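Tokens for chain A. Residues wanted.
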């Protein structure tokens, strides 16, 4: 039986996990970006999904082998497209920090996660242009874009108020123009994860038919979608590793002999923690979605809203906005409030439908 309140709790736990995943990476030392990103990603996209699905799903391999190949392909394909967004999502955090980067990227993810599915299946006009619910959803997307604009203005004001050394003291490679461009691309591509989950409905049905608890029905879908993400990220990081000749960092090369072991162990543990935190966002998401019942339309928007809120709190906790004027802090808070409000509007529009 559905329990929307329990589902809401799971969605907020997922949002907290997503907003927190990049924090452990800040403690990694003497590893290049491609090394720690791929290391954490192996835990996110390979180890964790197969482990938890194997434990909680009955006859996991049988379920996946019985799944139509077309379903497996679309889950993998949308996962690979999402992988491009996830890959550049890490770069967004690198250049903009947690609060600003996540606000812009996730605002766009919310908008495109709503717009693209009806475009894909040819129902855009019927669903969004001629119905009251469609008009509400479009209004929510407009508010999303306004919120993104306000947050971007806050970032521009921050860049003007702080010196390069002050910006880099909290965000090592702060670059507004590069960061915003990457965030836009990341937000658009990251919305593909929602399409991958939707394409996996036959897998969920097969999982239930084999006796899996409804709470865990979405875990096998994550195995396939995240394999697509692993494919994209592995190819990109492998290219960077070959270019930068950084593979030796996995074995302590470039570190002093006496201190190699401790930083290496610390780096691996931090990457594992980051990877597990990232995976748990969708672990809890699938649990929350299974409990929403007729309120399932709100799952994606609840997820996005919770991530934006928790990432903002992390951004302030890590003092990313330290030293800026109260007006600038007010801008970023106002922009993020608009983004959260937009997810509510979109959710209401889905409810009307």
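Reply:
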């Amino acid at each position: 039986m559905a329990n929307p309140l329990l589902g809401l709790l799971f969605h907020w736990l997922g949002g907290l996990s997503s907003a927190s995943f990049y924090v452990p990476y800040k403690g990694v030392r003497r590893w290049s970006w491609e090394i720690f990103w791929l290391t954490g990603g192996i835990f996110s996209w390979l180890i964790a999904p197969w482990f938890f699905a194997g434990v909680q799903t009955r006859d996991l391999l049988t379920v996946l082998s019985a799944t139509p190949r077309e379903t497996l392909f679309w889950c993998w394909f949308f996962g690979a497209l999402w992988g491009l967004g996830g890959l550049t999502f890490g770069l967004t955090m690198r250049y903009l920090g947690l609060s600003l980067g996540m606000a812009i990227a996730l605002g766009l993810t919310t908008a495109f996660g709503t717009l693209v599915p009806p475009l894909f299946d040819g129902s855009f006009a019927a669903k969004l242009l001629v119905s009251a619910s469609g008009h509400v959803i479009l209004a929510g997307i407009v508010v999303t874009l306004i919120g993104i604009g306000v947050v971007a203005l806050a970032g521009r004001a921050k860049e003007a108020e702080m010196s390069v050394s002050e910006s880099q003291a909290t965000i090592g490679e702060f670059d507004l123009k590069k960061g915003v461009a990457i965030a836009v691309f990341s937000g658009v591509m990251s919305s593909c994860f929602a399409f991958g989950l939707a394409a996996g409905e036959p897998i969920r049905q097969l999982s239930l038919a084999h006796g899996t608890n409804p709470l865990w029905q979405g875990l096998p879908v994550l195995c396939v979608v995240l394999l697509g993400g692993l494919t994209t990220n592995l190819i990109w990081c492998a290219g960077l590793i070959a270019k930068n000749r950084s593979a030796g960092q996995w074995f302590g090369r470039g570190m002093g002999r006496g201190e190699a072991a401790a930083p290496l162990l610390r780096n691996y543990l931090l990457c594992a923690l980051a990877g597990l935190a990232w995976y748990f966002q969708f672990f809890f998401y699938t649990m929350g979605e299974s409990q929403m019942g007729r309120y399932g339309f709100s799952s994606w928007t609840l997820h996005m809203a919770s991530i934006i809120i928790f990432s903002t709190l992390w951004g302030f906790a890590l003092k990313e906005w330290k030293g800026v004027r109260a007006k600038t802090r007010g801008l970023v808070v106002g922009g993020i409030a608009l983004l959260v409000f937009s997810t509510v509007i979109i959710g209401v529009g889905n409810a009307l439908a």
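The mean pLDDT is 82. The chain has 15 helices and no strands.
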